[in-house]
Protein backbone atom coordinates (compact mmCIF):
# COMPACT_ATOMS: atom_id res chain seq x y z
CA UNK A 1 0.00 0.00 0.00
CA UNK A 2 2.97 2.32 0.69
CA UNK A 3 3.86 2.27 -2.98
CA UNK A 4 0.40 3.44 -4.05
CA UNK A 5 0.42 6.08 -1.29
CA UNK A 6 3.82 7.29 -2.47
CA UNK A 7 2.65 7.54 -6.06
CA UNK A 8 -0.51 9.43 -5.03
CA UNK A 9 1.31 11.98 -2.85
CA UNK A 10 3.93 12.44 -5.56
CA UNK A 11 1.19 13.06 -8.12
CA UNK A 12 -0.47 15.65 -5.84
CA UNK A 13 2.81 17.43 -5.08
CA UNK A 14 3.51 17.74 -8.78
CA UNK A 15 0.23 19.64 -9.11
CA UNK A 16 0.95 21.88 -6.06
CA UNK A 17 -1.74 20.30 -3.85
CA UNK A 18 -0.80 20.09 -0.13
CA UNK A 19 0.05 16.71 1.42
CA UNK A 20 -2.74 16.96 4.03
CA UNK A 21 -5.33 16.76 1.24
CA UNK A 22 -3.69 13.56 0.03
CA UNK A 23 -3.69 12.08 3.53
CA UNK A 24 -7.42 12.71 3.90
CA UNK A 25 -8.47 11.49 0.46
CA UNK A 26 -6.10 8.52 0.20
CA UNK A 27 -8.40 5.97 1.98
CA UNK A 28 -10.99 6.49 -0.74
CA UNK A 29 -8.69 4.94 -3.36
CA UNK A 30 -8.58 1.43 -1.82
CA UNK A 31 -12.30 1.75 -1.13
CA UNK A 32 -13.01 2.45 -4.79
CA UNK A 33 -10.70 -0.37 -5.90
CA UNK A 34 -12.47 -2.83 -3.56
CA UNK A 35 -15.95 -1.67 -4.59
CA UNK A 36 -15.12 -1.99 -8.28
CA UNK A 37 -13.54 -5.41 -7.68
CA UNK A 38 -16.59 -6.66 -5.78
CA UNK A 39 -18.99 -5.71 -8.56
CA UNK A 40 -16.76 -7.22 -11.25
CA UNK A 41 -15.95 -10.41 -9.35
CA UNK A 42 -19.58 -11.03 -8.38
CA UNK A 43 -20.72 -10.59 -11.98
CA UNK A 44 -18.06 -13.10 -13.05
CA UNK A 45 -18.83 -15.50 -10.20
CA UNK A 46 -22.57 -15.68 -10.86
CA UNK A 47 -21.92 -16.46 -14.51
CA UNK A 48 -19.19 -18.94 -13.55
CA UNK A 49 -21.48 -20.70 -11.09
CA UNK A 50 -24.21 -21.12 -13.68
CA UNK A 51 -21.71 -22.26 -16.32
CA UNK A 52 -19.95 -24.72 -13.99
CA UNK A 53 -23.20 -26.19 -12.69
CA UNK A 54 -24.26 -26.59 -16.32
CA UNK A 55 -20.93 -28.29 -17.01
CA UNK A 56 -21.54 -30.86 -14.27
CA UNK A 57 -25.07 -31.61 -15.45
CA UNK A 58 -24.19 -31.84 -19.17
CA UNK A 59 -26.01 -28.65 -20.06
CA UNK A 60 -24.74 -25.50 -21.75
CA UNK A 61 -25.78 -22.83 -19.27
CA UNK A 62 -26.48 -19.24 -20.31
CA UNK A 63 -25.52 -18.85 -23.98
CA UNK A 64 -27.82 -16.22 -25.47
CA UNK A 65 -26.75 -12.77 -24.24
CA UNK A 66 -23.44 -11.92 -25.85
CA UNK A 67 -20.73 -14.43 -26.76
CA UNK A 68 -21.06 -17.57 -24.55
CA UNK A 69 -23.70 -15.74 -22.53
CA UNK A 70 -21.09 -13.41 -21.08
CA UNK A 71 -23.47 -10.49 -20.59
CA UNK A 72 -26.20 -12.58 -18.99
CA UNK A 73 -25.35 -11.51 -15.44
CA UNK A 74 -25.13 -7.86 -16.47
CA UNK A 75 -28.62 -8.14 -17.94
CA UNK A 76 -29.78 -9.82 -14.72
CA UNK A 77 -28.24 -7.08 -12.60
CA UNK A 78 -29.94 -4.35 -14.64
CA UNK A 79 -33.24 -6.18 -14.31
CA UNK A 80 -32.76 -6.43 -10.54
CA UNK A 81 -31.96 -2.72 -10.22
CA UNK A 82 -35.05 -1.70 -12.19
CA UNK A 83 -37.36 -3.78 -10.01
CA UNK A 84 -39.77 -2.32 -7.50
CA UNK A 85 -38.84 -2.26 -3.80
CA UNK A 86 -41.87 -3.76 -2.09
CA UNK A 87 -42.62 -2.69 1.48
CA UNK A 88 -44.15 -5.48 3.52
CA UNK A 89 -47.25 -4.77 5.62
CA UNK A 90 -46.48 -5.17 9.32
CA UNK A 91 -42.73 -5.24 8.81
CA UNK A 92 -40.33 -3.17 10.89
CA UNK A 93 -39.41 -0.66 8.18
CA UNK A 94 -36.15 0.60 9.69
CA UNK A 95 -34.71 -2.85 10.45
CA UNK A 96 -36.03 -4.17 7.15
CA UNK A 97 -34.13 -1.49 5.23
CA UNK A 98 -30.96 -1.65 7.27
CA UNK A 99 -30.55 -5.46 7.27
CA UNK A 100 -29.05 -5.80 3.74
CA UNK A 101 -26.54 -3.07 4.57
CA UNK A 102 -25.57 -4.80 7.82
CA UNK A 103 -24.93 -7.95 5.80
CA UNK A 104 -23.00 -6.23 3.05
CA UNK A 105 -20.69 -3.84 4.91
CA UNK A 106 -18.71 -6.48 6.91
CA UNK A 107 -18.24 -8.48 3.72
CA UNK A 108 -16.80 -5.40 2.06
CA UNK A 109 -14.48 -4.86 5.04
CA UNK A 110 -13.21 -8.43 4.68
CA UNK A 111 -12.07 -7.58 1.17
CA UNK A 112 -9.61 -5.11 2.65
CA UNK A 113 -7.62 -7.49 4.85
CA UNK A 114 -6.56 -10.03 2.21
CA UNK A 115 -2.99 -9.49 0.91
CA UNK A 116 -3.51 -9.48 -2.86
CA UNK A 117 0.21 -9.10 -3.43
CA UNK A 118 3.15 -8.28 -1.19
CA UNK A 119 2.44 -4.56 -1.74
CA UNK A 120 -1.34 -4.35 -1.99
CA UNK A 121 -2.79 -5.04 1.44
CA UNK A 122 -5.40 -2.42 2.12
CA UNK A 123 -5.67 -3.05 5.88
CA UNK A 124 -2.42 -4.53 7.16
CA UNK A 125 -2.98 -5.19 10.86
CA UNK A 126 -0.78 -7.34 13.06
CA UNK A 127 -3.91 -9.31 14.10
CA UNK A 128 -5.60 -9.75 10.71
CA UNK A 129 -6.71 -13.31 11.50
CA UNK A 130 -8.48 -12.18 14.67
CA UNK A 131 -10.04 -9.32 12.73
CA UNK A 132 -11.21 -11.77 10.11
CA UNK A 133 -12.92 -13.99 12.69
CA UNK A 134 -14.71 -11.05 14.30
CA UNK A 135 -15.84 -9.44 11.04
CA UNK A 136 -16.87 -12.68 9.35
CA UNK A 137 -19.31 -13.35 12.20
CA UNK A 138 -21.08 -9.99 11.71
CA UNK A 139 -23.24 -10.71 8.61
CA UNK A 140 -25.33 -13.15 10.66
CA UNK A 141 -26.63 -10.16 12.64
CA UNK A 142 -27.98 -8.70 9.41
CA UNK A 143 -29.50 -12.05 8.48
CA UNK A 144 -31.27 -12.34 11.84
CA UNK A 145 -32.44 -8.71 11.53
CA UNK A 146 -33.87 -9.41 8.08
CA UNK A 147 -35.67 -12.49 9.36
CA UNK A 148 -37.08 -10.65 12.37
CA UNK A 149 -38.14 -7.53 10.46
CA UNK A 150 -39.80 -9.31 7.54
CA UNK A 151 -42.85 -10.38 9.57
CA UNK A 152 -42.85 -13.73 7.77
CA UNK A 153 -42.54 -17.24 9.14
CA UNK A 154 -40.22 -18.38 6.36
CA UNK A 155 -37.82 -15.50 6.90
CA UNK A 156 -37.76 -15.98 10.65
CA UNK A 157 -37.11 -19.73 10.47
CA UNK A 158 -34.41 -19.19 7.86
CA UNK A 159 -32.72 -16.53 9.96
CA UNK A 160 -32.83 -18.67 13.13
CA UNK A 161 -31.31 -21.59 11.26
CA UNK A 162 -28.59 -19.37 9.88
CA UNK A 163 -27.76 -18.07 13.35
CA UNK A 164 -27.57 -21.54 14.88
CA UNK A 165 -25.50 -22.81 11.99
CA UNK A 166 -22.94 -20.02 12.03
CA UNK A 167 -22.50 -20.15 15.81
CA UNK A 168 -21.84 -23.88 15.77
CA UNK A 169 -19.46 -23.74 12.81
CA UNK A 170 -17.50 -20.77 14.12
CA UNK A 171 -15.68 -22.85 16.77
CA UNK A 172 -13.97 -25.42 14.50
CA UNK A 173 -12.88 -22.55 12.24
CA UNK A 174 -11.23 -20.84 15.20
CA UNK A 175 -9.35 -23.96 16.25
CA UNK A 176 -8.06 -24.51 12.72
CA UNK A 177 -7.04 -20.85 12.47
CA UNK A 178 -5.23 -21.27 15.80
CA UNK A 179 -3.24 -24.17 14.41
CA UNK A 180 -2.29 -22.03 11.41
CA UNK A 181 -1.24 -19.22 13.74
CA UNK A 182 0.84 -21.76 15.68
CA UNK A 183 2.46 -22.99 12.47
CA UNK A 184 3.43 -19.54 11.22
CA UNK A 185 3.76 -17.93 14.68
CA UNK A 186 2.02 -14.79 13.48
CA UNK A 187 -1.48 -13.41 13.12
CA UNK A 188 -0.59 -11.09 10.28
CA UNK A 189 -1.73 -12.54 6.96
CA UNK A 190 1.35 -11.25 5.15
CA UNK A 191 3.63 -12.99 7.69
CA UNK A 192 1.57 -16.15 7.32
CA UNK A 193 2.20 -16.03 3.58
CA UNK A 194 5.93 -15.40 4.15
CA UNK A 195 6.12 -18.40 6.51
CA UNK A 196 5.04 -20.58 3.56
CA UNK A 197 7.94 -19.39 1.46
CA UNK A 198 10.74 -21.90 1.13
CA UNK A 199 12.90 -24.12 -1.02
CA UNK A 200 10.20 -26.71 -1.61
CA UNK A 201 7.71 -24.30 -3.24
CA UNK A 202 4.40 -26.16 -2.94
CA UNK A 203 5.68 -28.48 -0.20
CA UNK A 204 6.11 -25.55 2.19
CA UNK A 205 2.42 -24.68 2.11
CA UNK A 206 0.51 -25.08 5.36
CA UNK A 207 -1.94 -27.43 3.69
CA UNK A 208 0.52 -30.34 4.02
CA UNK A 209 1.06 -30.40 7.77
CA UNK A 210 -2.53 -29.26 8.32
CA UNK A 211 -4.48 -31.26 5.72
CA UNK A 212 -7.15 -32.31 8.26
CA UNK A 213 -7.54 -28.71 9.29
CA UNK A 214 -7.94 -27.67 5.66
CA UNK A 215 -10.76 -30.16 5.11
CA UNK A 216 -12.45 -29.07 8.36
CA UNK A 217 -12.23 -25.37 7.55
CA UNK A 218 -13.43 -26.02 3.99
CA UNK A 219 -16.57 -27.73 5.34
CA UNK A 220 -17.09 -24.96 7.91
CA UNK A 221 -16.72 -22.24 5.29
CA UNK A 222 -19.41 -23.96 3.23
CA UNK A 223 -21.64 -23.81 6.30
CA UNK A 224 -20.81 -20.15 6.99
CA UNK A 225 -21.61 -19.27 3.39
CA UNK A 226 -25.03 -20.97 3.63
CA UNK A 227 -24.14 -22.95 0.52
CA UNK A 228 -25.00 -26.50 -0.43
CA UNK A 229 -25.02 -28.93 1.36
CA UNK A 230 -25.59 -26.57 4.31
CA UNK A 231 -28.12 -24.27 2.63
CA UNK A 232 -30.79 -24.80 5.29
CA UNK A 233 -31.34 -21.04 5.86
CA UNK A 234 -32.55 -20.66 2.29
CA UNK A 235 -33.82 -24.16 1.67
CA UNK A 236 -35.91 -23.66 -1.43
CA UNK A 237 -38.21 -26.62 -1.00
CA UNK A 238 -39.02 -25.77 2.61
CA UNK A 239 -38.65 -22.02 3.15
CA UNK A 240 -39.21 -20.44 -0.29
CA UNK A 241 -35.96 -18.44 -0.09
CA UNK A 242 -35.31 -18.27 3.67
CA UNK A 243 -34.34 -14.95 5.15
CA UNK A 244 -34.59 -13.04 1.87
CA UNK A 245 -38.07 -14.25 0.94
CA UNK A 246 -39.67 -10.80 1.35
CA UNK A 247 -36.87 -8.83 -0.28
CA UNK A 248 -36.92 -7.55 -3.83
CA UNK A 249 -35.08 -5.17 -6.09
CA UNK A 250 -32.01 -3.39 -4.79
CA UNK A 251 -32.22 -4.79 -1.25
CA UNK A 252 -32.26 -8.33 -2.57
CA UNK A 253 -29.36 -7.44 -4.85
CA UNK A 254 -27.34 -6.43 -1.79
CA UNK A 255 -27.96 -9.84 -0.15
CA UNK A 256 -27.02 -11.54 -3.38
CA UNK A 257 -23.89 -9.42 -3.76
CA UNK A 258 -22.85 -10.12 -0.16
CA UNK A 259 -23.30 -13.87 -0.61
CA UNK A 260 -21.06 -14.14 -3.64
CA UNK A 261 -18.52 -11.57 -2.41
CA UNK A 262 -18.23 -13.56 0.83
CA UNK A 263 -17.75 -16.78 -1.11
CA UNK A 264 -14.91 -15.28 -3.11
CA UNK A 265 -13.21 -13.68 -0.14
CA UNK A 266 -13.43 -16.88 1.92
CA UNK A 267 -11.79 -18.75 -0.93
CA UNK A 268 -9.08 -16.09 -1.08
CA UNK A 269 -8.64 -16.33 2.70
CA UNK A 270 -8.30 -20.12 2.50
CA UNK A 271 -5.80 -19.75 -0.33
CA UNK A 272 -3.81 -17.28 1.76
CA UNK A 273 -3.76 -19.48 4.84
CA UNK A 274 -3.21 -22.88 3.28
CA UNK A 275 -2.12 -22.57 -0.34
CA UNK A 276 0.61 -20.00 0.01
CA UNK A 277 -1.46 -16.93 -0.84
CA UNK A 278 0.20 -14.89 -3.54
CA UNK A 279 3.31 -17.10 -3.71
CA UNK A 280 3.82 -18.73 -7.11
CA UNK A 281 3.03 -22.42 -7.61
CA UNK A 282 6.16 -22.80 -9.72
CA UNK A 283 8.45 -21.69 -6.88
CA UNK A 284 9.93 -18.85 -8.93
CA UNK A 285 8.25 -15.82 -10.43
CA UNK A 286 7.72 -16.17 -14.16
CA UNK A 287 8.25 -12.43 -14.71
CA UNK A 288 11.77 -12.81 -13.26
CA UNK A 289 12.63 -14.92 -16.30
CA UNK A 290 11.03 -12.71 -18.94
CA UNK A 291 11.61 -9.21 -17.55
CA UNK A 292 14.83 -9.67 -15.59
CA UNK A 293 16.44 -6.55 -17.09
CA UNK A 294 13.33 -4.38 -16.98
CA UNK A 295 13.29 -1.50 -14.47
CA UNK A 296 9.59 -2.20 -13.74
CA UNK A 297 10.32 -5.76 -12.56
CA UNK A 298 8.79 -5.17 -9.07
CA UNK A 299 5.54 -3.95 -10.66
CA UNK A 300 5.40 -7.05 -12.85
CA UNK A 301 5.99 -9.20 -9.78
CA UNK A 302 3.13 -7.49 -7.91
CA UNK A 303 0.76 -8.24 -10.76
CA UNK A 304 2.02 -11.81 -11.02
CA UNK A 305 1.44 -12.33 -7.30
CA UNK A 306 -2.11 -11.09 -7.78
CA UNK A 307 -2.50 -13.50 -10.69
CA UNK A 308 -1.35 -16.49 -8.60
CA UNK A 309 -3.73 -15.60 -5.78
CA UNK A 310 -6.62 -15.35 -8.24
CA UNK A 311 -5.79 -18.76 -9.74
CA UNK A 312 -5.77 -20.41 -6.31
CA UNK A 313 -8.96 -18.60 -5.32
CA UNK A 314 -10.81 -19.66 -8.44
CA UNK A 315 -9.72 -23.28 -7.96
CA UNK A 316 -11.25 -23.13 -4.46
CA UNK A 317 -14.40 -21.47 -5.79
CA UNK A 318 -14.60 -24.27 -8.35
CA UNK A 319 -14.38 -26.79 -5.49
CA UNK A 320 -17.22 -24.96 -3.69
CA UNK A 321 -19.30 -25.33 -6.84
CA UNK A 322 -18.37 -29.00 -7.27
CA UNK A 323 -19.59 -29.67 -3.72
CA UNK A 324 -22.81 -27.80 -4.48
CA UNK A 325 -23.39 -29.88 -7.60
CA UNK A 326 -22.75 -33.17 -5.80
CA UNK A 327 -24.17 -33.28 -2.30
CA UNK A 328 -27.80 -33.12 -1.18
CA UNK A 329 -28.92 -30.89 1.70
CA UNK A 330 -28.35 -32.06 5.27
CA UNK A 331 -31.07 -32.21 7.89
CA UNK A 332 -30.94 -29.76 10.80
CA UNK A 333 -30.11 -32.52 13.28
CA UNK A 334 -27.27 -34.01 11.26
CA UNK A 335 -25.95 -30.53 10.55
CA UNK A 336 -25.53 -29.83 14.26
CA UNK A 337 -24.24 -33.36 14.89
CA UNK A 338 -21.56 -32.96 12.19
CA UNK A 339 -20.28 -29.79 13.79
CA UNK A 340 -20.38 -30.63 17.50
CA UNK A 341 -19.65 -34.38 17.40
CA UNK A 342 -17.16 -34.60 14.57
CA UNK A 343 -15.61 -31.34 13.39
CA UNK A 344 -15.04 -29.66 16.76
CA UNK A 345 -13.21 -32.63 18.40
CA UNK A 346 -11.27 -33.26 15.20
CA UNK A 347 -10.16 -29.65 14.99
CA UNK A 348 -9.04 -29.73 18.64
CA UNK A 349 -7.01 -32.90 18.04
CA UNK A 350 -5.61 -31.32 14.88
CA UNK A 351 -4.55 -28.26 16.88
CA UNK A 352 -2.69 -30.38 19.43
CA UNK A 353 -1.03 -32.46 16.70
CA UNK A 354 0.06 -29.31 14.87
CA UNK A 355 1.59 -27.86 18.04
CA UNK A 356 3.51 -31.09 18.66
CA UNK A 357 4.61 -31.10 15.01
CA UNK A 358 5.76 -27.49 15.30
CA UNK A 359 7.62 -28.13 18.58
CA UNK A 360 9.51 -31.28 17.63
CA UNK A 361 10.03 -31.01 13.86
CA UNK A 362 10.34 -27.31 13.15
CA UNK A 363 11.90 -26.65 16.56
CA UNK A 364 10.37 -24.42 19.20
CA UNK A 365 6.99 -22.76 19.35
CA UNK A 366 8.20 -19.45 17.93
CA UNK B 1 -18.94 -47.25 8.74
CA UNK B 2 -17.63 -43.70 8.81
CA UNK B 3 -14.93 -44.47 6.25
CA UNK B 4 -17.52 -46.02 3.93
CA UNK B 5 -19.54 -42.79 4.04
CA UNK B 6 -16.44 -40.73 3.34
CA UNK B 7 -15.53 -42.97 0.42
CA UNK B 8 -19.04 -42.64 -1.01
CA UNK B 9 -18.89 -38.84 -0.78
CA UNK B 10 -15.52 -38.69 -2.55
CA UNK B 11 -16.71 -41.10 -5.26
CA UNK B 12 -19.77 -38.91 -5.76
CA UNK B 13 -17.60 -35.88 -6.39
CA UNK B 14 -15.56 -37.77 -8.98
CA UNK B 15 -18.72 -38.98 -10.71
CA UNK B 16 -20.08 -35.45 -10.94
CA UNK B 17 -16.74 -34.12 -12.14
CA UNK B 18 -16.59 -36.74 -14.91
CA UNK B 19 -19.82 -35.32 -16.36
CA UNK B 20 -17.98 -32.20 -17.41
CA UNK B 21 -16.10 -34.15 -20.08
CA UNK B 22 -19.21 -35.73 -21.59
CA UNK B 23 -21.21 -34.46 -24.56
CA UNK B 24 -23.70 -31.66 -23.85
CA UNK B 25 -27.34 -32.69 -24.01
CA UNK B 26 -28.71 -29.18 -24.58
CA UNK B 27 -29.85 -28.36 -28.12
CA UNK B 28 -30.06 -24.68 -28.99
CA UNK B 29 -33.62 -24.84 -30.27
CA UNK B 30 -34.26 -22.37 -33.08
CA UNK B 31 -30.86 -23.06 -34.68
CA UNK B 32 -30.64 -26.80 -33.98
CA UNK B 33 -33.85 -28.78 -34.41
CA UNK B 34 -34.59 -31.96 -32.55
CA UNK B 35 -34.61 -35.34 -34.37
CA UNK B 36 -38.29 -36.28 -34.31
CA UNK B 37 -39.47 -39.87 -33.78
CA UNK B 38 -41.07 -41.73 -36.68
CA UNK B 39 -44.63 -41.59 -35.36
CA UNK B 40 -44.45 -37.95 -34.31
CA UNK B 41 -47.77 -36.14 -34.79
CA UNK B 42 -47.63 -32.52 -35.91
CA UNK B 43 -50.27 -30.41 -37.64
CA UNK B 44 -52.48 -32.55 -40.00
CA UNK B 45 -51.76 -32.07 -43.70
CA UNK B 46 -54.52 -32.44 -46.29
CA UNK B 47 -53.86 -33.68 -49.84
CA UNK B 48 -56.64 -32.54 -52.17
CA UNK B 49 -55.88 -34.94 -55.00
CA UNK B 50 -56.50 -37.97 -52.74
CA UNK B 51 -59.55 -36.66 -50.90
CA UNK B 52 -62.93 -38.20 -51.85
CA UNK B 53 -64.91 -35.98 -49.48
CA UNK B 54 -66.30 -38.93 -47.48
CA UNK B 55 -66.37 -36.72 -44.35
CA UNK B 56 -65.15 -39.53 -42.07
CA UNK B 57 -62.51 -37.20 -40.67
CA UNK B 58 -65.21 -34.69 -39.74
CA UNK B 59 -67.14 -37.40 -37.88
CA UNK B 60 -64.23 -38.95 -35.97
CA UNK B 61 -62.72 -35.65 -34.88
CA UNK B 62 -63.27 -35.44 -31.08
CA UNK B 63 -62.76 -31.66 -31.04
CA UNK B 64 -64.84 -30.73 -34.11
CA UNK B 65 -61.79 -29.07 -35.59
CA UNK B 66 -62.02 -30.53 -39.13
CA UNK B 67 -64.61 -29.49 -41.68
CA UNK B 68 -65.03 -30.81 -45.24
CA UNK B 69 -67.32 -29.06 -47.74
CA UNK B 70 -68.10 -30.67 -51.06
CA UNK B 71 -68.83 -28.21 -53.85
CA UNK B 72 -69.82 -28.92 -57.46
CA UNK B 73 -66.32 -29.53 -58.74
CA UNK B 74 -64.18 -28.83 -55.71
CA UNK B 75 -63.63 -29.89 -52.09
CA UNK B 76 -62.97 -27.40 -49.30
CA UNK B 77 -60.97 -28.39 -46.25
CA UNK B 78 -61.08 -26.38 -43.02
CA UNK B 79 -58.96 -26.97 -39.92
CA UNK B 80 -59.24 -24.95 -36.72
CA UNK B 81 -55.89 -25.32 -34.95
CA UNK B 82 -57.18 -23.63 -31.82
CA UNK B 83 -59.54 -26.60 -31.42
CA UNK B 84 -57.36 -29.38 -32.87
CA UNK B 85 -55.77 -31.61 -30.23
CA UNK B 86 -53.52 -33.35 -32.75
CA UNK B 87 -54.86 -36.78 -31.77
CA UNK B 88 -54.33 -38.22 -35.26
CA UNK B 89 -57.82 -39.74 -35.51
CA UNK B 90 -58.50 -38.10 -38.89
CA UNK B 91 -55.30 -39.45 -40.39
CA UNK B 92 -55.89 -42.92 -38.92
CA UNK B 93 -59.44 -43.20 -40.20
CA UNK B 94 -58.99 -41.67 -43.64
CA UNK B 95 -59.62 -44.45 -46.24
CA UNK B 96 -57.45 -42.83 -48.90
CA UNK B 97 -54.68 -41.42 -46.70
CA UNK B 98 -55.62 -37.91 -47.76
CA UNK B 99 -54.76 -36.60 -44.28
CA UNK B 100 -51.27 -37.24 -42.98
CA UNK B 101 -49.83 -35.98 -39.71
CA UNK B 102 -46.92 -33.73 -40.65
CA UNK B 103 -43.78 -33.12 -38.60
CA UNK B 104 -44.59 -29.43 -38.20
CA UNK B 105 -44.95 -28.52 -34.52
CA UNK B 106 -44.20 -24.79 -34.63
CA UNK B 107 -47.73 -23.43 -34.59
CA UNK B 108 -47.30 -20.20 -32.66
CA UNK B 109 -48.95 -17.27 -34.49
CA UNK B 110 -49.56 -13.62 -33.74
CA UNK B 111 -53.33 -13.66 -34.13
CA UNK B 112 -56.10 -16.16 -33.46
CA UNK B 113 -57.52 -15.85 -36.95
CA UNK B 114 -54.30 -17.27 -38.38
CA UNK B 115 -55.02 -20.55 -36.59
CA UNK B 116 -57.89 -21.33 -38.97
CA UNK B 117 -56.54 -23.07 -42.08
CA UNK B 118 -58.71 -23.07 -45.19
CA UNK B 119 -57.77 -25.09 -48.28
CA UNK B 120 -59.56 -25.54 -51.56
CA UNK B 121 -58.86 -28.31 -54.07
CA UNK B 122 -59.30 -25.77 -56.90
CA UNK B 123 -56.41 -23.68 -55.71
CA UNK B 124 -53.14 -24.93 -57.00
CA UNK B 125 -51.04 -23.29 -54.37
CA UNK B 126 -52.09 -25.49 -51.48
CA UNK B 127 -49.36 -27.31 -49.72
From the helix content, strand content and strand pairing of chain B, which structural class follows?
alpha+beta
How many domain modules of chain A?
2
Order of helices and strands of chain A: HHHHHHHHHHHHHHH
Might you state the CATH topology name of the domain at 38-120 in chain B? Alpha-Beta Plaits
Largest sheet of chain A: none
Please indicate the percent range of residues of chain A in DSSP E strands (runs of 2 or more): under 5%
Radius of gyration over C-alpha positions of chain A, nearest whole angstrom: 22 Å
Q: How would you write the strand order of the largest sheet of chain B?
A: 2-3-5
Label the CATH architecture of the domain at 38-120 in chain B.
2-Layer Sandwich
Task: Describe the structure in your own words.
In chain A, 68% of the residues lie in helices and 0% in strands. Chain A is mostly helical and 366 residues long. Chain A has 2 domains: 1-82, no CATH class; 86-360, no CATH class. In chain A, helix 5 (93-113) packs antiparallel against helix 6 (128-136), helix 7 (139-149) runs antiparallel to helix 8 (153-184) and helix 8 (153-184) runs parallel beside helix 15 (332-360). Chain A is globular, with a radius of gyration of 22 Å. Chain A starts with a helix and ends in a 6-residue tail after the last helix. In chain B, a hairpin with a 4-residue loop joins strand 2 (66-70) and strand 3 (75-80). The longest helix of chain B is centred in the first third of the chain and has 17 residues, at 2-18. In chain B, the strands form 2 sheets. Chain B has a 3-stranded antiparallel β-sheet, with no helix packed on it. A two-stranded antiparallel ribbon of chain B has the order 1-4. The chains are: A mainly alpha (366), B alpha+beta (127). The A-B interface holds A 54-60, 63, 322-323, 325-327 and B 9, 12-13, 15-17, 19-20, 22-26, 28.
Amino acid sequence: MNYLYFLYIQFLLNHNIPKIFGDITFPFIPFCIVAAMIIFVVLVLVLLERKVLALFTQRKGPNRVGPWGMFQTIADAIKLLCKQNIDILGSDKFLFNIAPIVVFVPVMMLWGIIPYSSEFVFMNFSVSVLLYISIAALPVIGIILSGYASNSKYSLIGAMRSGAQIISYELPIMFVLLSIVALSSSMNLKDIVYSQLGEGAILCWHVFPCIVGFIIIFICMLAELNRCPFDLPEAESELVAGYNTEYSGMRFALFFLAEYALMFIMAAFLATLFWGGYLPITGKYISEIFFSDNQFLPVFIYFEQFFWLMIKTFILVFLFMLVRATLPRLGTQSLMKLSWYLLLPLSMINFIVIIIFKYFIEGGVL
Amino acid sequence: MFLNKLKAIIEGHFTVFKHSFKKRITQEYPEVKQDLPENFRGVPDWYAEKCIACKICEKVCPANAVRIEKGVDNVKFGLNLSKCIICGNCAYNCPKNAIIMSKNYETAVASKSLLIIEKNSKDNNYE
